[in-house]
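Re: cytidine-5'-triphosphate structure - here you go.
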Amino acid sequence: MANFFALIPAAGAGSRMRDELPKQYLPLAGKPMIYHALRTICSSLRIVRVFVVLAPGDDEWLRHDWSEFSGKLVVLQCGGATRAQSVLNGLQGARDISAIGDGDWILVHDAARPCLGETQLDKLMDELAGDEVGGLLAVPVADTLKRSDTSSRVACTESRENLWQAQTPQMFRYRLLVEALSMTGGATMTDDAGAVEALGLQPKLVLSDARNLKVTYPQDLALAELILRNS
Ligand code: CTP
Ligand code: MG
């Protein structure tokens, strides 16, 4: 039986939030943003250990109390220059201190998606546990899509048929994920599935919903707060 582990990359600077404090620590519903994702993931009885990947110079983490997760959470201060590099460093660091098998599942979840629900998390694990490749939570694109020219004028309307927005968690077996991220060097990949796709594999899309939004811009915070307060 494969075990489930989670890895939370939290080594970004949050430049699009335009705040000095990296966004994973911005206050959200009375806690630092990353707390919410950690709570949902650490509460899952199926996930045996949760690794959080911080930037090497992070001096904010220790300003908060994480003791409620102490049985499950492991902090790795080995973030890299890109998300992919942070995930890869984290995978290597995790194996240095834990017995993780090649076939064990790793759920990679962004610290910047605080509204992940227990139902979505369980659905992902249920639907992929027997899968050959692995996959990710995602939502079919609902809006009409326009492609622009260089002066913000519509060049054309794109079909949204079969288009999905990728979310996290993204769930792959340890060895495949390390291999995929090492091969691509993580160069331009903004998610883990992209690296796996580059190996010629087809990750499975598991239907999620818009509540699992990523906080990217300042205005996303209020929406995330509303979702958390109503869930
Ligand atoms: N991340 C990381 N290491 C990096 C860059 C990003 O661990 N070098 C993490 C972020 O902390 C976040 C997740 O990857 O939890 C998703 O990235 P994103 O939303 O792009 O966050 P930032 O890179 O911090 O934000 P921005 O791109 O606006 O600077
Ligand atoms: Mg980024």
